[in-house]
Amino acid sequence: MTDRSIDVGQAKAVQEGVADAQVDEEEEVVPAPWHFKVLVVGTVGYLIYRLIWLIFWLTGHAWNG
Fold first, then answer.
1. pLDDT tens for residues 46-61?
2. 2-27 confidence digits (pLDDT tens)
3. How far are the Cα atoms of 5, 6, 21 from residue 28, in angstroms, in the given order?
4. Which domain holds residue 48?
5. Which residues does 13 contact at the CB level (< 8 Å), separation at least 6?
6. What's the CA gap between 42 and 48, in Å, rounded?
7. Is residue 45 part of a domain?
8. How many Å is the Cα radius of gyration of the chain?
9. What letter does residue 24 receive in the DSSP assignment?
10. 1: confidence class by pLDDT, cuts 50, 70, 90
11. How far apart are CA 28 and CA 7, in angstroms?
12. Global pTM?
């Protein structure tokens, strides 16, 4: 084992046979697509709706023994 850190981009370039290739240090951050955000908002809304109905169900059935 070695104590040196290995740059993944440089290792790929060496593996492909391009040892002197320019490797970008920073990769561009890709934002989440709009439909994923809509899916997350819809899922959270649905779970809140189900939680509210669970609370109503428990208050209607749990103490009317």
1. 999 999 999 999 888 7
2. 677 767 666 666 666 654 545 555 77
3. 22, 20, 18
4. 31-65
5. 19, 21, 23
6. 10
7. yes
8. 26
9. -
10. low
11. 17
12. 0.51
